Amino acid sequence: NERQEGRPSKQRLLVVANRLPVSAVRRGVDSWQxxxxxxxxxxxxxxxxxxxxxxxxxxxxxxxxxIGQRALTKALxxxxxxxxxxxxxxxxxxxxxxxxxxxxPLFHYLGxxxxxxxxTTRSFQSQFDAYKKANQxxxxxxxKIYQEGDVVWCHDYHLMFLPQCLKRYNSNMKVGWFLHTxxxxxxxxxxxxxxxxxxxSVLAADLVGICDSKSGYTASVRPFNPSxxxxxxxxxxxxxxxxxxxxxxxxxxxxxxGKLTRVAAFPIGIDSERFIRALELPQVQDHIKExxxxxxxxxxxxxxxxxxMIKGIPQKxxxxxxxxxxxxxxxxxxxxxxxxxxxxxxxxxxQKLTSQVHEIVGRINGRFGTLTTVPIHHLDRSxxxxxxxxxxxxxxxxxxxxxxxxxxLVSYEFVACQxxxxxxxxxxxxxxxxxxxxAGAILVNPWNITEVAASIGYALNMPADERExxxxxxxxxxxSHTSQEWAATFVSELNDTIVEAQLRTRQ
Length: 507
Ligand code: ADQ
Prior knowledge:
Helix content is 46%, strand content 19%. By secondary structure, the chain is of the alpha/beta class. The longest helix has 29 residues, at 117-145.
């Protein structure tokens, strides 16, 4: 029992996210194999040394028996993870339904899947009920292990209802919430039937952070990053609260009946050192050599994305086709490597996207390929970390053309691996990263394939001194705005907010 264990010397940080940073595979009645999945959030939190961090979340598997649940809980405890057990029906309604069919497309301005629109509208209420129920289940687990003085950091659109559930348990609990996706214009948010409930719940948190490459929205309190001054997502959130709830927007956030919730923009980053160090490893160097030989005499263009509607993969490939069409002399001098990790493979909309991409790639390779070469290499799979670093390092032009993206870490990873090559980044203006890497990248509207095709030509022909200047700008940003700094800033802001709130209450 954690409550009886005595206080650890470091302050405890409870990180609550839909998925735990491990994947669990059952090996027997009471045995589990766990593998840590390293992602942006995990490496960010590894860097926050002053906290004793624990994770609370779903392990991604349905475990209905007591023996299995007990064994998994025990195995996860060694990794400082605490599971929330969700049954199949809840996962179907909460995760597949409300999170991925409603909030994800809506927050990315894509609306609901067209053919499912009516069906989704009908099942909306039951999905939202499941969403609230699931969030309550997360809150129950947090509440059970919470100790006075802990900081609770809730993540993403899956858990918008959680801050309120936690505050109902204990109004003194320090609760922050961070959104990894864009927060859309209030005109989009107001179409959501549960628009008010979600906003009210999030406002129960003490600090709301929006993933963005923006500087301190709370500049009057403490400027984080004074060289950038845009704050679109935070502004959209405040507008939604003022227009939908009638609350007051202030320079610090949102105020209602004397209670202020601070709304801030916290740009996420990557663990840039990890990428830079990896490039020195012999196996990565070997891989780089192989790739250079394989593509000798051709410029390498690269796309690395999850295969999701928001990433704009078909649009990107069509722009590349247009470039080849208009520039026959480049047809045998450039190759596009598109690495796309499949996600949500059971959803028809995503299956359709996969077929669409395959169809376009096949057509273009048939049209411009020769007996020995093709212009596009498309892989439907994930690459391991070292292979990914090598690929970033040999790339001349990276194409990040998301239709919308909270930030986009691929653009950061590419820049981190380009110290030698000083390659060019073509970046969608609709990715949060455009706010921070915009001065070094070529910004494009991904819907305008004529513009993207022209940018490909500009990037391929860019003189070395311009590449160098652009790269330096981005490299400076990526190496000085790291994931570790992002996490440390959020948590220390959350602590400060509480101190301020307590002071205000005492006055
Ligand atoms: P994602 O939509 O997953 O994240 P992104 O920020 O690009 O998008 O991160 C993807 C991660 O997966 C990167 O670390 C990348 O290296 C890795 N990855 C992608 N394709 C891969 C492949 N084929 N093989 C191996 N690795 C691959 C969400 C939001 C983003 C936001 C992040 C973090 O949608 O906008 O930047 O969270 O807040």
